[in-house]
What does this fold into?
Amino acid sequence: MKDHPILKAARGEKTDYTPIWIMRQAGRYSERYRKIRAQAGSFMELCRNPKLAAEVTLIPIEEIGVDAAILFSDILVPLEKMGINVSFVEGKGPVLEPKVEKLEDVEKLRIPEPEKELPYVLETIQLIKKRLTDRPLIGFSGAPFTLASYMLEGGSSKNYIAAKSTMWNEPELWDALMSKLAETVIEYLSSQIKAGVDLIQIFDSWMGVLSKEDYERFVFPYTEKIVNELKKRHPETPIIHFGVNASHLLEVNNKLNVDVIGLDWKTEIPFALERIDKSIQGNLDPVTLFADEKIIEERVRKILTEGLKARGHIFNLGHGILPPTDPKKARFLVDTVHKVSKELRG
It folds into this structure.
C-alpha cells in the first residue's frame, strides 16, 4: 500500500497518474447508500453499525472507481462519548445538547478512550481493511475549532456568534475546551491509524470564518499540537488538512507539519502554490458535476494541468459531492481524471 499513487502523491513522489477520491463519496447521491441508511435507521445508528458502515464505505470503490475509500462516520461521533448528545433533525442538521456555555460545562467533558468507548469505529476499519486490499483507507476527524463551534452553538451556524464571542471574551473557557478537544482528536486519530487506516484527513471545515489574526492566535496552536503529536507517534502516516473559504489562511497552515493541504473550489491552484510547499488536494466545484461532460473534462484538464506544478496532487472536489448528483457523472469524473492525467504526465 505504501506505493499507492495517493500515498505517493501525499509524500510528493512521482506518480503515473493523478489519483482521485471524493469528499462525501459514500453518501446520499448513491441509491445503494439510501437503501442501507433506511435499513439502519438514523444516521448515527448507521455510524455505530460496523457491518453497514463498512458496506457504505466500499460503495464508491465499486460504483465510481475512486482510488481510496474514506471511513464512513461523522466528525461529531467522538463528541457523544465526551458527554454531548448528538441528533440529526430533518431540515435542520445536527443538534447538540447540552450546549457548552460555561467553564463548568467543559470540566464535565471527558476525553474518550476510543478502544473502549468507540469500538464500532475501529471494528468498521478492520472490516473494511479485510476487503479493501488494493487501495488505501482514509480515516478522519474534525479539528478542534470546528468541533468547538458545534458544541458552543448547539449545531450549525451562519455567524458563529457563540464560538467567536467565547474565543474573545472567555479565554480560560476557550483554552480548556480547545485543549480537551485537541487531546480527544489525537487519541481518536491515533486509534484509527493503529486499527489500519493508511492516511488521515483533519476537517477544519469552518476555519475560514475566522480572520487570519484570530485563526493564528486562537486556533492554529491546537491544530499544530495534534499534527505534531500524530507525526511523533505515526511518522509514516500522511496527514491532509482541509477547510472551506480558507485561502487567506494558506500561509499560516503551511507551517503545519502536514503532507497535504486541501483546497476548496474558490482557491485557485496557482494562488495556493505561491503560498504553500505541501502537496495539494482538490479542487473542482461540486456543482460542475451537473454540467455537460465536455465542460467537466475542460475543468478537470485545467485543474490537472495546474496541479502538475505542485509537489504532489490528489484530485478531489472542493467540498462534498451533492446529494442530487448523478452517479454516472461521478464515474465520468473519475475516469476523466485518470485518462487526462496519464496523458498530461506522458
User: Anything to note?
Assistant: The radius of gyration is 19 Å. The beta strands are 69-70, 85-89, 93-97, 137-142, 199-203, 239-242, 260-262, 279-281, 313-314. The chain has a mean pLDDT of 96. The CA atoms of residues 41 and 185 lie 27 Å apart.
